[in-house]
Amino acid sequence: MLDPYKIRLDFPILKRKVNGHPLVYFDNAATSQKPKQVIEAVKDFYENHNANVHRAVHTLSQEASELYEKAHEEVAQFINAKGIEETVFVRGTTEAINLVAYSWGFRNLGKQDEVIISLMEHHSNIVPWEIMSKIKGFKIRYAEVKEDGTLNYESFESLVTSRTKLVCVSHVSNITGVVNDIQRISKSTHQNGALLIVDAAQSVPHMPVDVRKLDVDFLAFSGHKMLAPTGIGVLYGKRALLEDMEPFQGGGDMIKEVDYSPRTKRCSIRWNSLPWKFEAGTPHISGGVGLMEAVRYLKQLGMKNVAAHEEMLTKYAMQHMKDCGEKVEIYGPKDASAKCGIIPFGVAGLSSHDVALFLDNYGIMIRSGFHCAQPLHQLLKLNSSARASFYIYNTKEEVDRFIEVLKEIEQF
Amino acid sequence: MGTYEDFVARTDGTCGKDKDIIVTFKYDKKNEAIERILEKAKIEKSISHIIFELTFGDTSFRLYGSGKAIFRDMSSKEKLQAILTELLS
After folding, report:
1. What is the per-residue pLDDT across A73-115, written as a single tens digit (0 to 9) for each?
2. Strand pairing class (A218-222; A195-199)
3. Does residue A117 have a pLDDT over 80?
4. Alpha-carbon span A1 to A336, nearest angstrom
5. A361 vs chain B: nearest CA distance in angstroms?
6. CB of B56 within 8 Å of any CB in chain A?
7. Is the pLDDT of residue B19 over 80?
8. Which pLDDT belongs to residue B2?
9. Are B70 and A357 inside 8 Å of each other by CB?
10. A88: left (phi over 0), alpha (psi -120 to 50) or beta
11. Min Cα–Cα distance to chain B from A323, Å
């Protein structure tokens, strides 16, 4: 097991007070806090190595390029990709999914095709496909979710047919914390000749993720939810698929050559090799460096330990939330081992925002609203939800404070 | 009309089916804003004098010692601005 008290020493922000109370940060599903190792790595990059990557021959550019490429290697190893060719750096999960929608979807989806999307998806795994569907005319079919927030696998599998070209599903729901059986979904997807894209924004930061074991075609995640800076994320794609795809954006660094022909008065273009083909323009170099340090930090802790710690906190919190009174209701599955560090809940008679403001008053940060997953809220018949989500630096004592305030709220 | 701008840092519509608006008062003016509001609005209930359930005319809202308030089912920001201007003047 990891030691959250030792870990907390690495996170400067956790020393601060909010509204006169020690900060309790339970909004980790939205973004994580950053350890000094990541902050220092970004600072060191700007103080000692800052230059643009690739092409330049000077020393700083060589150093920046090496760091940026090493960051790709660290990430590839972290998710067990075959190499850096399979790890494209993007702004985050949203951009990664849009990349697939525009680069793969635009050329491979047509009027006869179907795309299956689970109803528990974050808007970032719904909206790009709805936009592309309007352009290309393919049909979207939504896979049902049960009343407890878990995926209805039978219903899902009945939707996957020879017309299915793509299945879009999250590894972990950002609302309920439900962990989907990606291996099962992958099997039925591939049996029907379709591809699978997985939104792993809520899984890669919190549990061991092995893209080869899961047998996913694409997998997207964000750095900022796993200790890294904002504005850096990753698209994993199987090499053969990425090789076949056209670039998402055009510009510098994603090309090998742009050859102007005086005869045709046009430029002929050869794409750069992977992953650079999909990283047009100057990338978020310091973000990549920060992500590398974040990955190293998590690797040192061990992702199994991270998962075990969060499961322990989730069980502990759910158990004590039951004692907070009749008005407090936990949404989604009641079995903490089926979840991943996320607890959605409500207090009867209060909106989720009221609950969040109450807790904020005592220095406790949680999320409220739809959390960018309106369809799932509609399905679960919720106007909105409050959400507590844990990470490596959270402690049982913090959960106790949360419970104490929740009891006070219940009495209001 | 200067009162609203003097006290209010930002207003945000909430995410969710309920159309509430959250008001954040300027940090250095929050205590004065709370005092002024408590003088004019009716206190329905409170916790430890730091969280208040209030009504003002037909508007119900909650005020927090942290310097935030949540106005429920507010039809427009203009209406909210008018209410806050009255409360803060």
Report:
1. 999 999 999 999 999 999 999 999 999 999 999 999 999 999 9
2. parallel
3. yes
4. 17
5. 5
6. no
7. no
8. 61
9. yes
10. beta
11. 20
